[in-house]
Design goal:
The strands form 4 sheets. A 7-stranded parallel sheet has the order 6-5-4-9-12-14-15, sandwiched between helices. A 3-stranded antiparallel sheet has the order 1-3-2. A 3-stranded antiparallel sheet has the order 10-11-13. The chain folds into 2 domains: 59 residues, Arc Repressor Mutant, subunit A, CATH 1.10.10; 184 residues, Rossmann fold. The chain is built from 10 helices and 15 strands. Helix content is 38%, strand content 26%. The protein is α/β, with parallel strands linked by helices. It is elongated, with a radius of gyration of 19 Å. Pfam families: DeoRC, HTH_DeoR. GO terms for molecular function: DNA-binding transcription factor activity.
Length: 253
């Protein structure tokens, strides 16, 4: 296959799926990852996509936010490992906050029954998993429910969060990087996430490696505001060093 043909297929794949993964594309086309990276660089120069950590995103899909069912299937095994690693940060008793997100929802399902916890969340999936379980007191923040994420946003949630102090907050994100912090496409959701960060004594970010460098429209936290980043071992050493330079602790699940 000629390089131009491969690049055309990569551009079509980015438009269709919203993302190109370098490793997967290299295996599919039976070429070295460096070849795919050069292809993506050429397509970026043509204005067809934007390179991010581990691959690229189509320009016309930069504001696209997948539905929660699709996001939950993406890197599912890695998200499960991250959620299990986060259990070490859950206190034996106290207050925790679960942000909206597929990985935080997985953590909700893993919370041990022997903990005495008050859980605050704006995530309908997380609240649904915890509401009927003995031993947990669950507070669901009110507000408008975003159909894309099944999380509550806007003033009802913000007004309550201003009055709260929780021991540990667990956060999801659409993108994160040492330079741009933690970001999400929607300003309303970003505002609630920012208020949750402010309400938490300890802040733990749960994000798989594919989100590194995928900076989105609205920032809700600097990496310096995050105490611990739990990601997966797909994150390379250079990216880990960039994160550690922000003074955040990094755990690779």
């Amino acid at each position: 296959m000629y390089g131009a043909e491969r690049q055309q297929l990569l551009a079509q794949r980015a438009r269709r799926d919203g993302r190109i993964d370098v490793t997967a594309a290299a295996a599919e086309f039976e070429v070295a990852p460096e070849t795919i990276r050069r292809d993506l660089a050429a397509l970026e120069r043509q204005g067809l996509l934007r390179r991010v950590y581990g691959g690229a995103i189509a320009i016309d899909r930069l504001d696209f936010e997948p539905e929660i069912s699709l996001r939950d299937q993406t890197n599912a095994e890695k998200k499960e490992r991250i959620a299990k690693a986060a259990l070490d940060q859950v206190p034996a008793r106290g207050t925790v906050l679960l942000d909206g997100g597929t990985t935080t929802a997985r953590l909700a399902g893993l919370l041990p029954a022997d903990r005495e916890l008050t859980v605050v969340t704006n995530s309908l999936p997380a609240a649904n998993q915890l509401a009927t379980r003995n031993g947990f007191i669950v507070h669901l923040l009110g507000g408008r429910v975003r159909g894309t994420t099944l999380a509550t946003v806007e003033s009802w949630a913000l007004d309550v969060l201003r009055l709260l102090t929780v021991d540990v907050g667990f956060f999801g994100t659409n993108g994160f990087s040492a330079a741009r912090g933690c970001t999400t496409p929607d300003p309303a959701e970003s505002a609630v996430k920012s208020a949750m960060v402010a309400a938490s004594r300890r802040r733990v970010l749960l994000a798989d490696h594919s989100k590194y460098g995928d900076d989105q429209f609205s920032r809700f936290a600097e990496l310096s505001e995050i105490d611990l980043v739990i990601t997966d071992d797909g994150l390379d050493a250079a990216a880990v060093d960039e994160l550690k330079a922000t003074e955040a602790e990094v755990v690779l699940a």
